Amino acid sequence: MPSPDHRSDPGLAHTPRPGGIAARAKAHAGPEPGYLGGLNAEQRLAVETTEGPVLVLAGAGTGKTRVLTTRIAHILATGRAQPSQILAVTFTNKAAREMKERVAHLVGAVAEGMPWLGTFHSIGTRILRRHAELVGLKSNFTILDTDDQIRLMKQVIAAENIDEKRWPARQLAGLIDSWKNRALGPDQVLPGEAQAFANGRGGELYRLYQERLKTLNAADFGDLLVEAIRLFRENADVLELYQRRFRYVLVDEYQDTNVAQYLWLRLLAQGREPGQRNLACVGDDDQSIYGWRGAEVDNILRFEHDFPGARVVRLERNYRSTGHILTAASALIAHNQGRLGKTLRTEDVAGEPVTITGAWDSEEEARLVGEEIEALHVKGHSLAEMAILVRISAQMRELEDRLVQLGVPYRVIGGPRFYERMEIRDALAYLRCVASPADDLAFERILNTPKRGLGDATVQVLHAHARAARIPLMEAARYLVETEELKPKPRGTLRELLTAFGRWSGLMDTLRQGELAEIVLEESGYTDMWQRDRSAEAAGRLENLKELVRSLEEFPDLQAFLEHVSLVMEIGDGDTNERVSLMTLHAAKGLEFETVFLPGWEEGLFPNQRALDESGRAGLEEERRLAHVGLTRARRRARIYFASNRRIHGMWNATVPSRFIDELPESAVEVIDAPASYSYGGYGASRFDTVGQTPSSYATPGWQRAQARGFGSPGGGFGRGGTGGGGPGHGGFDRGAGQARRRGGTVIEGELVAKSTGSSAFSNGDRVFHQKFGPGAVVAVDGNKLTVDFDKAGRKMVLDSFVTRG
DNA sequence: CGCTCTCCTCTTTTT
DNA sequence: GAGGAGAGCG
């Protein structure tokens, strides 16, 4: 309750805030519950407007999750619903987990928790398993991930005698995905779009793929929603069951929903009686960055239209960033059209301006970022409070190299997930075969892994028989080992494998799944395969397998584990140690850091050329939202960088500062002249200076001259005078880059020597092991700096703290 | 059947 | 530049 004179519970420490909705809030009377304390007026309105459709527009850092969880707490505490009557959906498991924890914290552990709080997909799965037979599946259907999907599509394409090279399965997967995102079945595909693949056979292949899925008793991720929608549409009684059950529906990140998710929600939230239409969606149109995977910003823009009588609550008070950061982010996003419009405000100080630093090339950029991280670290800033956010993962390598050289610990967030690693997928395939012998895709995967002489020829025979007899591959194999169809050698090997599987399946009930997994991996020769492997990654892979066995033990049984794996592609939680975080801008959504580094703000990279080419203005606006997300991750410091030269697909390209830089207000930014750098200090009042825009005070006329000569930037010309006429082409760049590199070398030298304490414990000829480069031999020692000839990775310079004796 | 070489492609990513 | 996939050779 915002009014200061409001009587409050003893001990309730809530800051009175100005607001004008006291009367409305008071309608709920009674002593004020503690969980409402500390909410501002808008947040409180969002929490207490429980009935009817509500859209909460929650800008970055405005307490979105808090509103969502408090709202659930409020519904429970006021007895409006039981935990099992609330449907709360998120996109990621992480968000779901967080919400569960926070609700539990607010209301105290409610007996059965919140059974219907989860991701769209996990809840979809749950519903689908209960009514599987209504959509042609069995309740124990398997969930295929992208890898399985593509392999299956390859088979479908091959079976239709279509040239997979000309019409790649990946592309078909993309198409089918986009259809499923819009809840389109094979019959509903627009003829024009079906035309886009294999001369109009797109729709046909989609149908065949769906048929294969049903035969395999499998569903892909899209099906978890689309089949649920079909289930609801074709079975009014089932739909009504759920409509009645879910008295309150809450949706997180509504701006990321696709058409299928929207339809799914609408079916569930639009009960016949008014009391069933309590839908609350929380989102931020300015943070919609997943359009490329089917998210429809339109869903949030049209909310009021779709749900008549909807209330819209705007959360605009930002509790995260300082004034300058917020000003910069707001000014940037204001360039977007077609937004619902919010103005973020803060009561925090203006703080440090957003800095913009130009570098000669991406290598220097990485160096500048590294130096700044060190400088802040020396001043006592925690590394865990710093993050480098990049547009594409390809940017990470150079930054990583730099951090390794500096000895700055870091962690990459996102990247290949644990369960996507080859060795994990192989191991899982073994377990899947043990648990369900009819899992053809799994069986095929491990049939010849490790190599046991069951190659293409054998697979072909198996397939032919399985298809003809309409039985799973494993069953076909059992039959074939009793016949003469296979050559004696593969036949014997296959028989052995089948016997082993029989044995392992028999152990399922008596052994703990972890032990079982160990036995399977051991006896199948899989562990052995990696132990014999002398490559750099082998050790890590064995580690991962151990980790898998360990995490397996956390589940009651193998089935539960496999279910978890197909839906929750993650394991453990990243340690929050003293480490700099490195991730893509996409991965950064929802996170915040004291200091955020934003390298690579160049035309073509960010905004990304491909986004522009493929989606035009909408693409540009999504890129701009991405920039907005990036800036608003920062609490106190945001540092933007751009390089004048960058290697793209292995080729050096001259680049131009991002138009987003030009869109930042001068009042909130500071242009840094990188000292001792060959970058041209300051960025031009670029060609993006359109009519009516404030001309930049740091414009350099040389820029436009360079432009005119076909140089992306004055690259060769600045600072050294006179070489500008060197002309475009690689010669000029190579020279420039070469000099920057030489110069950079000295700087590196200084840093590293300064850091070295005493001499290294290693000497020439020592065998060492490096986490990233694998085994190698020391060829030179210089302080704490080693030059190592790595067996696989070649000669590298590394710090001794990064290697172990090996 | 398996290994090696060459060619091709190449955002963003969750479930 | 680097990884993945397919072709071709041993």
From TrEMBL:
One of its GO terms (cellular component) is cytosol. InterPro entries: DExx_box_DNA_helicase_dom_sf, DNA_helicase_UvrD-like_C, DNA_helicase_UvrD/REP, P-loop_NTPase, UvrD-like_ATP-bd. It comes from the Bacteria. It is an enzyme of class 5 (isomerase). GO terms for biological process: recombinational repair. It catalyses: Couples ATP hydrolysis with the unwinding of duplex DNA by translocating in the 3'-5' direction; ATP + H2O = ADP + phosphate + H(+). Residues 713-735 have a biased composition (Gly residues). Its EC number is 5.6.2.4. ATP binds at residues 58-65. Residues 323-590 form the UvrD-like helicase C-terminal domain. Residues 1-28, 713-742 are annotated as: Disordered. Residues 37-322 form the UvrD-like helicase ATP-binding domain. GO terms for molecular function: 3'-5' DNA helicase activity; ATP binding; DNA binding; hydrolase activity. The keyword Zinc-finger does not apply. SUPFAM superfamilies: P-loop containing nucleoside triphosphate hydrolases. Keywords: ATP-binding, DNA-binding, Helicase, Hydrolase, Isomerase, Nucleotide-binding. Has both ATPase and helicase activities. Unwinds DNA duplexes with 3' to 5' polarity with respect to the bound strand and initiates unwinding most effectively when a single-stranded region is present. Involved in the post-incision events of nucleotide excision repair and methyl-directed mismatch repair. Belongs to the helicase family. UvrD subfamily. This is DNA 3'-5' helicase. It comes from Chelatococcus reniformis.
